[in-house]
Amino acid sequence: QAQLVESGGGLVQPGGSLRLSCAASGFALRDYAIGWFRQAPGKEREGVSCISSSDGRAYCVDSVNDRFTTSRDNAKNTVYLQMNSLKPEDTAVYYCAAAPVQYTDSFPLRDYEYDYWGQGTQVTVSS
Protein backbone atom coordinates (compact mmCIF):
# COMPACT_ATOMS: atom_id res chain seq x y z
CA GLN A 1 0.00 0.00 0.00
CA ALA A 2 1.00 3.61 -0.42
CA GLN A 3 3.27 4.90 2.29
CA LEU A 4 5.22 8.05 3.08
CA VAL A 5 7.92 8.10 5.73
CA GLU A 6 9.54 11.32 6.89
CA SER A 7 12.98 11.46 8.46
CA GLY A 8 15.68 13.97 9.27
CA GLY A 9 14.02 15.90 12.05
CA GLY A 10 15.73 16.74 15.30
CA LEU A 11 16.99 19.49 17.56
CA VAL A 12 18.79 22.39 15.93
CA GLN A 13 19.95 25.77 17.16
CA PRO A 14 18.42 28.98 15.79
CA GLY A 15 20.07 29.85 12.53
CA GLY A 16 20.86 26.24 11.78
CA SER A 17 19.74 24.00 8.94
CA LEU A 18 18.02 20.67 8.54
CA ARG A 19 17.10 18.57 5.55
CA LEU A 20 14.01 16.45 5.87
CA SER A 21 13.40 13.44 3.65
CA CYS A 22 10.12 11.93 2.56
CA ALA A 23 10.46 8.39 1.27
CA ALA A 24 7.57 7.17 -0.86
CA SER A 25 6.55 3.59 -1.58
CA GLY A 26 3.58 1.77 -3.04
CA PHE A 27 2.80 4.36 -5.70
CA ALA A 28 4.49 6.13 -8.59
CA LEU A 29 6.02 9.28 -7.15
CA ARG A 30 6.31 10.82 -10.63
CA ASP A 31 2.50 11.04 -10.80
CA TYR A 32 2.19 12.97 -7.55
CA ALA A 33 2.98 16.36 -6.16
CA ILE A 34 4.42 16.25 -2.66
CA GLY A 35 3.46 18.88 -0.14
CA TRP A 36 5.11 19.72 3.15
CA PHE A 37 2.92 20.72 6.07
CA ARG A 38 3.67 21.44 9.69
CA GLN A 39 1.88 21.52 13.01
CA ALA A 40 3.30 23.54 15.87
CA PRO A 41 2.72 22.50 19.49
CA GLY A 42 -0.79 23.33 20.62
CA LYS A 43 -1.82 24.61 17.19
CA GLU A 44 -3.71 23.30 14.24
CA ARG A 45 -1.85 22.03 11.22
CA GLU A 46 -0.91 24.86 8.91
CA GLY A 47 -1.60 25.02 5.23
CA VAL A 48 1.03 23.73 2.87
CA SER A 49 4.49 25.25 3.32
CA CYS A 50 6.25 23.91 0.24
CA ILE A 51 5.29 21.78 -2.74
CA SER A 52 7.36 19.70 -5.11
CA SER A 53 5.47 19.33 -8.38
CA SER A 54 5.59 15.97 -10.10
CA ASP A 55 8.09 17.36 -12.63
CA GLY A 56 10.34 18.67 -9.89
CA ARG A 57 9.43 22.34 -9.71
CA ALA A 58 9.39 23.90 -6.26
CA TYR A 59 6.99 26.30 -4.61
CA CYS A 60 7.07 27.61 -1.06
CA VAL A 61 4.75 30.07 0.57
CA ASP A 62 5.97 33.61 1.16
CA SER A 63 6.54 33.10 4.87
CA VAL A 64 9.29 30.53 4.27
CA ASN A 65 10.40 30.82 0.65
CA ASP A 66 13.53 32.76 1.55
CA ARG A 67 14.63 29.93 3.85
CA PHE A 68 13.00 26.67 2.70
CA THR A 69 13.11 24.82 -0.56
CA THR A 70 12.02 21.41 -1.74
CA SER A 71 13.41 19.01 -4.30
CA ARG A 72 12.92 15.42 -5.36
CA ASP A 73 14.73 12.42 -6.72
CA ASN A 74 12.12 10.25 -8.43
CA ALA A 75 14.69 7.52 -9.01
CA LYS A 76 15.09 7.25 -5.25
CA ASN A 77 11.38 7.81 -4.58
CA THR A 78 12.35 10.57 -2.20
CA VAL A 79 11.45 14.22 -1.75
CA TYR A 80 13.47 16.62 0.37
CA LEU A 81 12.75 19.76 2.35
CA GLN A 82 15.82 21.90 2.93
CA MET A 83 15.33 24.32 5.78
CA ASN A 84 17.88 27.05 6.46
CA SER A 85 18.11 29.90 8.94
CA LEU A 86 15.74 28.08 11.24
CA LYS A 87 13.84 30.02 13.88
CA PRO A 88 12.22 28.87 17.12
CA GLU A 89 8.83 29.46 15.51
CA ASP A 90 9.68 26.76 12.97
CA THR A 91 9.38 24.21 15.76
CA ALA A 92 6.71 21.75 14.68
CA VAL A 93 5.96 18.27 13.47
CA TYR A 94 6.58 18.26 9.74
CA TYR A 95 4.50 16.08 7.44
CA CYS A 96 4.80 15.23 3.79
CA ALA A 97 1.76 14.32 1.75
CA ALA A 98 1.11 13.14 -1.81
CA ALA A 99 -1.47 14.59 -4.18
CA PRO A 100 -2.28 12.98 -7.55
CA VAL A 101 -2.00 15.56 -10.29
CA GLN A 102 -3.18 15.78 -13.87
CA TYR A 103 -0.55 18.29 -14.88
CA THR A 104 3.11 17.85 -14.03
CA ASP A 105 3.57 21.49 -13.00
CA SER A 106 0.61 21.56 -10.61
CA PHE A 107 0.98 22.86 -7.08
CA PRO A 108 -1.96 21.57 -4.99
CA LEU A 109 -2.55 24.13 -2.27
CA ARG A 110 -5.39 22.53 -0.27
CA ASP A 111 -4.86 19.68 2.14
CA TYR A 112 -7.97 17.89 0.85
CA GLU A 113 -6.14 17.37 -2.44
CA TYR A 114 -3.62 15.11 -0.73
CA ASP A 115 -4.38 11.40 -0.58
CA TYR A 116 -1.44 10.01 1.37
CA TRP A 117 0.20 11.37 4.51
CA GLY A 118 3.31 10.48 6.44
CA GLN A 119 3.49 10.09 10.19
CA GLY A 120 5.55 13.24 10.67
CA THR A 121 8.97 14.11 12.00
CA GLN A 122 9.65 16.48 14.88
CA VAL A 123 11.74 19.58 14.31
CA THR A 124 12.75 21.57 17.37
CA VAL A 125 14.61 24.84 17.04
CA SER A 126 16.05 25.90 20.35
CA SER A 127 19.27 27.06 21.95
Structure description:
With 127 residues, the chain is mainly β. It has no helices and eleven strands. The strands form two sheets. Strands 2, 4, 5, 6, 9, 10 and 11 form a seven-stranded mixed beta sheet that branches. A four-stranded antiparallel beta sheet has the order 1-3-8-7, with no helix packed on it.
Helix-strand pattern, N to C? EEEEEEEEEEE
Class inferred from helices and paired strands: mainly beta
Tell me the total number of β-strands: 11
* Helicity range: under 10%
Stretches where pLDDT falls below 50 for ≥5 residues? none
Characterize the largest beta sheet: strand count, sense, and whether it forms a barrel: 7 strands, mixed
Strand content: over 45%
Rounded to the nearest angstrom, the distance between the terminal CA atoms is 40 Å
Rg for CA atoms: 13 Å
| Cα shape | globular
Average predicted local confidence, pLDDT: 96
